[in-house]
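Please review the protein record below. Let me know how this chain folds according to its tokens.
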Amino acid sequence: MVAREVLPVEALDAWAAAEGVKAQAARITERLSAPRPTLAGLSLSRPALMGVLNVTPDSFYAGSRRLDAPRAIEEGLAMWEAGADILDIGGESTRPGADPVGEEEERRRVLPVVAALVGSGARVSIDSRHANVMEAALEAGAALVNDVTALSGDARSLDVVAAQVGAGAVLMHMRGDPRTMQKDPSYADVALDVYDYLEERVQACEAAGIGRERLVVDPGIGFGKTVAHNLRLLEQLALYQGLGTAVLLGASRKSFIGKLSRGEEPAARQPGSLAAVLAGAARGCQIFRVHDPAETRQALTVWEAVTEARA
């Protein structure tokens, strides 16, 4: 049995030879270095921004709560103009402790916003774990599905996404469900346990007819993780490039930022959010889910300029 460990790339060939897994190592190496193809019409040649647009009354960050469709549409368009590449529309909070929302209510919240923003020319993703909501949003023009259950929470989800040939999907890792996920989460090694889970979900998608070029993986910062778990995932983000998909980081304004700092509430966590984005960019992340696209784009633009100058 091959031992589970994280190796630097330069040690991979020697390890593969010793373990007799050269073909597996070659496949991982190719996936690590291959450019990611265009995803649902979005080029991943530079970091892409997914703007958070919650049509909910109870999201963890009060500044992102919108239950009025006209306001959500207006703010979504403002995010698009500010540099968001995708607008991620959700009608059910998945913050720790959140109660589920009925599908009809979720549809009522999100579908008018999806239709209006798509009609205005924006690229939209639907943040949902319910296949019927995904299907309706995709039919209304959404380009991606963003599912905290990695298309495992609803039996129809895989088929719904597979049927929309041009649509992409974000597969996120979550331990448990929003009501229970922060109750003493534990892992043997969070980076590798999350990798194994996401690898299994990618394989399930491929078996359903959803190719890796249509997939994004998200290690799920804050979803069933302690501060130490989140830091380990941030440190090892490059590991997930070995899955051969795009990688998304969603750390914006999350509680671990305040816990690492001075206990700041979500409204005061923008600087820490930007720091997490830059750490992710240094590790090759292709997509960042953020509340503040304009500020994030500025930070990334400076980081890219410095990185290119150094090269």
